[in-house]
Amino acid sequence: MDKQAVFKSIATDLAKGELAFPTSAQIALKVRQALDHPECHIETAAKLVQAEPLLSARVVAMANSVAFNRSGREITDVRTSVQRLGFGAVRSLATALVTRQMAGSPAAKAQQELATQLWEHTAHVASLAHVIARRVTHIDAETAMFAGIVHEVGGFYLLSRAKDFPGLIDDNFEDWIEAGEVAVGRAVLSVLAVPKPVMEAVEHFWEGFLALPPRTLADTLLLAEELSPIASPLHKLGGADRRDGMTGSIEIAIGKETLSSILEESAEEVVSLTGALKF
Q1: Residues 6 or more apart in contact with residue 275 via CB below 8 angstroms
Q2: Disulfide-capable partner of 214 in 209, 219, 243, 263 (CB 3.0 to 4.6 Å)?
Q3: Is 3-276 assigned to CATH 1.10.10.60?
Q4: Tens-digit pLDDT profile for residues 192-240
Q5: How far is 38 from 191, CA to CA, in rounded Å?
Q6: pLDDT (tens digit per residue) in 119-168
């Protein structure tokens, strides 16, 4: 199979807008689009979220996570949860649902396992990016979490197309790393109308160069990838781990602290965020 030709064909289809979503993902996408509107009211947002039970549950869970519930006061309704989180975090959760369900329900057990592992990896990277943005690079934490959620979106879409191209996913997956990730990933990000700064950060992420000390959104994403306890299963298939060649130590100085001490202090926050992202 000429995989590069297949990736090009898939990217061309995407450029034509040919991307189908499951029903729940369609609702989540409408939520995200509504939240992008500057005149969207919190009541409208809450009603839209409530229309998708899985999204509702994750919104309440994240609102009660350590990262967002500093007071320790638990809340149980969607409206208050949306108010506590803010539209940025709710938008990220809606995108997370779209991303996770993009792969659909693969018939093959191996592909089901890949989709599950890929989301485990995605959830860890997004959660770590949120903490690193807030504590290390001092950029917008919700944007960093959003970038973490979409950084492997091309892989999820590829899993949804594997049934159409037998042999597309196998143990010899270098072509995905070299060409498919960029072509398909960029096309899916475009269809999802991902903001340009996030698209640029993800593209820098694909290049794989982490600057130290980390400062940018791309650095935040790369560092989160480096620190994730679960590597991307797609990159394992390709015989490569993007984390190889990056810093092997987390004892780098961040102001008066070290990265390891920051991560230790933020461990509970990462666990709670990762749990909230488990769709």
Answers
A1: 61, 65
A2: 219
A3: no
A4: 889 999 999 999 998 888 887 889 999 999 999 999 999 988 776 655 5
A5: 21
A6: 999 999 999 999 999 999 999 999 999 999 999 988 888 888 877 777 77
Q: What is the residue type of 3?
A: K
Name the nearest CA neighbour of 63 among 41, 43, 45, 78.
78
Residue 102: Cβ within 10 Å count: 23
Q: What is the pLDDT of residues 3-59, one digit of tens each?
A: 778 778 888 888 776 666 677 778 888 888 888 888 899 999 999 999 888 899 999
Q: Which residues touch 132 (CB under 8 Å, ≥6 apart)?
A: 144, 214, 220, 223, 224, 227
Cα distance between residue 228 and residue 153, in whole Å: 17
* Tokens coding 120: 């485990």
pTM comes to: 0.87
Per the structure block, which two tokens stand in for 58?
């994750």
Name the 3-class secondary structure at 30. Answer: helix
Query: What ranges in 16-152 are assigned the alpha helix state H?
Result: 23-35, 42-50, 53-63, 78-85, 87-102, 109-132, 141-150
Q: In sequence order, what DSSP letters do the residues of 205-246 get, joined into one string?
A: HHHT---SS--SHHHHHHHHHHH-SS--HHHHHTT--TTTTS
| Encoded tokens for 71 | 């007071």
- 257 falls in which pLDDT band (50, 70, 90)? confident
C-alpha 125/C-alpha 80 separation (Å) is: 27
Residue 75 token pair: 């809340």
Q: Is 179 left (phi over 0), alpha (psi -120 to 50) or beta?
A: alpha
Chain mean position to CA 251: 26
Where on the phi/psi map is residue 243: left (φ > 0), alpha (ψ -120 to 50), or beta?
Answer: alpha
Question: Residue type for 61, please?
Answer: A
CA 134 to chain CA mean position, Å: 17
